[in-house]
Write a structure and sequence with these properties.
Elements: H1 5-22, H2 42-48, H3 53-61, H4 63-66, H5 69-91, H6 98-121, H7 131-145, H8 149-180
Helix pairs in contact: 1-7, 2-5, 2-8, 3-5, 3-8, 5-6, 7-8
Length: 181
Amino acid sequence: MPRSKTAARRDDTVSIFQRYLRGLTYEQCGKTKLPWRDRRSSIVGASCWLLAVPSFMLQYQYPTTAGTLTGRVFQFAWIVTAAASFSSDYYWSGIDSFAHTVDTFLAAFMLIAMGILFLTNLRPEYALLGGIPVLCFYHSKKAQMNLNWNGYVVYHSVWHLSCAIVTSAYWFLLDERNHAT
């Protein structure tokens, strides 16, 4: 009996996240996950630096929030994340390097940390904004598994862009809440 499309999609999703988690294991540390070893994308490389935008937005647009301990920590963390992402996704693209492990850990940490900040500081429905980058990440990984270079470039770049936009929106909403109290 043929499998349903829903079952196939579910298996696909499980496979993608299993592969991501496997990348965090000791045996996979420093190994590239890109099937096209000798290619790098300037678009992906440039998009990595978009991850620094929330840091600058916080500093120059929302100084009330930037002055808090949380604000200062996240300003630093987003700049480090942008540098790690560039190092992994562009400079060492397709080449084994410990930069891939650092990027993977930072991406997971920042996603979880921002989710916690969304849930603890704003109304829960705002946490749904975090689904946008997660979907882009999912499609980027799916493109990798399907050896789809163009899909990878588009979705991985949009993953970086959506993280910057959603985080900047978070700072805006948090600053609005801080001014209201």
